[in-house]
Structure prediction request, 426 residues.
Amino acid sequence: MNADASVLIVGAGQAGVQVAEALRTLGFTGSIQLLGDEPHTPYHRPPLSKAWLAGTLDAAQLVMRAPQALERKNITLRTGAKVAAIDAARKTVHLADGSTLPYTGLVLTTGATPRALAVPGAQAQGVTALRSRDDASVVAQHLDRCVEQGRGVVVIGGGFIGLEVAATARKKGLAVTVLEAAPRLLGRVLAPVLSDWYARLHRSHGVQLVFQAQVARIEADAAGLVCGVRLVDGSLFEAALVVVGVGVTANDQLAAAAGLVCERGIMVDVCGRTSDPFIVAAGDCTARRLADGTLLRLESVQNATEQAKSAAAALMGQERPFTATPWFWSDQYDTKLQIAGLSTGADEWVVRGDMAADVSASSFSVFHFRQGVLLAVDSVNAGKDHLQARKLLDAHVSPARDRVADLACDFGINTHANHDEAARAY
Ligand SMILES: Cc1cc2nc3c(=O)[nH]c(=O)nc-3n(C[C@H](O)[C@H](O)[C@H](O)COP(=O)(O)OP(=O)(O)OC[C@H]3O[C@@H](n4cnc5c(N)ncnc54)[C@H](O)[C@@H]3O)c2cc1C
Prediction:
């Protein structure tokens, strides 16, 4: 793209900011407008369910980039600017305020929207998902009310965000119940052995866990404030705050309406290119088809950041495929979980460390293999294992299972373990 080119970025979140900055790093001198529909300057989402909600991180620390930092890079940030439609043939976007902007290159970084709970009463006050800073403020206010009134919290959905909120609410001394529809926590991402460990962790902190819970309705008082969650079996869980964490859907509606190929997300290749040669996409709004035909959707800071760099390069006509091992983290109580790789399809799990010990003192990793090939490693309070695992997975090297299980052995890529014939490159 030449100096006259103009890039519009729709969505001023993790990926949007990264694309803008990556374009400047790559030497793009044309205009860049970052259009965000939220009223806030770009901010970090992960602390919203963790340190910020717990009150150990202040609002200033949530800010990802101050407007001045973007101005210095000649990036124009427009908050409160919702894009309503894309005209791909004319290369323009229409904003909700009625204005139209032309583009040379368009970037879609629109994120995702929490799935709504489709049960009666779900609109009651005090029932909320947690995606945005405004959602987090609602959760924080209701948590304070729960503390004042000595009332409890119900979390619907035992996924990462729900469990992080549960941990934060317990830290504030509140009674917390997690209602999970599946038979275990984090069932889509963790091995059963780790789901069980997380159940023990939460129970050890006093959280009530209810599995195979079918929510029938949300109960509200005469003022419209939530007062409980009723299950199909008739049981009632009282609460003055209900946090719904039942997953998200990709914000691909703009792209789909503009004729881009979408399938549970805006379809991109490994460089963030969409089916339109002038439009790239990155982050939670995207989906990608892997070589084996699997549809991959990732919702993580690393994915948003790395895909954004690839998308910026693609706009500049460069190839920068994002092929690094996916990684993710979650903080609950004093426990840090770090996941490297994708465990789907694992047929064997090997534990390194002692999971049976006191949960608060545990440090271990779960290695996922398929036919002897390492797929993923989930590390709990074991940062060194996580870093080694990422190197192994990036290099496509599988350590021998007996060495992995033996704490006395190093399993990392530069260790003896992987220079003997037990280690397999694939
Ligand atoms: C509470 C919480 C905790 C998390 N914790 C972790 C964690 O511990 N580790 C981790 O790796 N990931 C975590 N994540 C996930 C991570 O934050 C996301 O994967 C990441 O923010 C995705 O970045 P994104 O740019 O794709 O989307 P977002 O950051 O969601 O940005 C998209 C932006 O686009 C805006 N937008 C949408 N449509 C339009 C439109 N039409 N016009 C203008 N603007 C629009 C949205 O309002 C939003 O501001 C967490 C997420 C949440 C919500």
User: Anything to note?
Assistant: The mean pLDDT is 94. Residues 133-149 form the longest helix (17 residues). The chain has three domains: 6-113+249-315, 127-244, 334-425. The radius of gyration is 23 Å.
